[in-house]
Design a protein that fits this description.
It is built from nine helices and ten strands. The two termini are 21 Å apart. The chain has 329 residues and is α+β, with helices and mostly antiparallel strands. β8 and β9 form a beta hairpin. The chain is globular and about 60 Å long. Helices cover 36% and strands 25% of the residues. α2 packs across α7, α3 packs across α9 and α4 packs across α9. It has one domain. A ten-stranded mixed β-sheet has the order 1-2-3-4-5-9-8-7-6-10.
């Protein structure tokens, strides 16, 4: 099966002039920001927030807090099927690549690829397959093979020549902690990532990323009011430089302040025992438009699109691929 498809990578600059392409997954968080009458202002304000937060965390030799500028590219990966089919190409995932410009030296430092994570197949799994498995059920159930196809494809992508020729390191995905879990502060403290939180009951999202070969740790950086979930392959604390970690923190903390202000723009910091909630009223809104309801509705729409254009014509072959390829965690 592995010779029946290949991966193709393309990139798009994410700046104040960014406009989603027709092939972009429109539930992608950054695509949501780039639509509507306030799109340029949304993007400009988002990038300003990222740069200010980066310079706040990278405080050494940076007295004016303006030394660094974060540059972002959207990385789109497509599945290309070699068989003669009407659907020979399908959008697989979108992530972000970070570059860090040192204005003082003129040097550009590579950041971490990953950060945000968007996937049509994940839309299908969570918005189509999981509801179908629970239709009429008395107790919530998750199929044993839930996420297998997506997880194997993701790991195969990271091990592919297409990925490794383009990116030097493994990705780090940074998202919100789960509102269905309780997190407890530990004594472990990292100079950049901040204080570590732990929880002993992985969420469905944690398990899903686990099938992608990614471990998870939860850290609350200095100045952040809630822990972030970091999904990684390798050693999060030692595989990346301080500037690389700051690039991911500043980018994804900014997005989370926009997407989940109840958690990440709250007016008080997480306690030692912390249960995040979207029902909180003690938070400040950003001046950036974001339609969370629309995004949820589009996830279902795009999950059904995936069912029609990927799973129906290629599902059997993808399931055979998943059954024959071991997961390397």
């Amino acid at each position: 099966m592995t010779n029946e498809f290949t991966f193709k990578i393309s990139t798009t600059r994410f700046d104040e002039d960014y406009a989603p392409s027709e092939n972009s997954r429109i539930t992608t968080n950054f695509a949501n920001l780039a639509r509507g009458e306030h799109r340029h202002q949304n993007l400009r304000n988002t990038l300003t927030m990222i740069n200010r937060r980066f310079n706040d965390l990278a405080e050494w030799d940076n007295g004016n807090q303006d030394r660094y500028e974060v540059e972002l590219e959207i990385v789109s990966a497509d599945l290309q099927f070699t068989a003669a089919d009407q659907d020979q190409q399908f959008p697989f995932l979108e992530i972000l690549d970070v570059q860090i410009l040192d204005r003082l030296s003129g040097v550009r430092h590579p950041g971490i690829v990953g950060n945000n994570f968007s996937s049509y197949i994940r839309d299908y799994d969570f918005s189509v397959r999981l509801p179908a498995a629970n239709k009429g059920a008395t107790e919530f159930t998750v199929p044993d093979d839930f996420g297998d196809v997506h997880g194997k494809l993701f790991q195969h992508f990271l091990d592919s020549a297409v990925y490794q020729e383009r990116f030097l390191g493994s990705p780090v995905i940074c998202i919100s902690v789960s509102t269905s879990r309780t997190y407890r502060r530990t004594e472990n403290h990292h100079p950049i990532l901040g204080v570590e939180y732990q929880q002993n009951d992985y969420s469905l999202t944690d398990d899903y990323f686990g099938k992608m070969g990614l471990q998870v740790r939860y850290f609350m950086p200095r100045g952040t009011v809630a822990p972030l979930a970091f999904y990684f392959r390798g050693d999060l604390l030692n595989d990346y430089s301080n500037l690389q970690l700051i690039g991911t923190i500043s980018t994804m903390e900014t997005f989370q302040k926009i997407y989940r202000p109840e958690i990440y723009n709250a007016n008080s910091a997480a306690a030692g025992i912390y249960r995040p909630s979207l029902d909180s009223q003690d938070f400040s809104k950003t001046l950036i438009d974001y339609d969370r309801v629309e995004r949820s509705e589009l996830a279902t729409k795009q999950g059904k699109f995936t069912e029609e254009h990927l799973m129906k014509p290629h599902g059997a072959a993808l399931e055979q691929f998943a059954a024959n390829v071991p997961v390397l965690v």
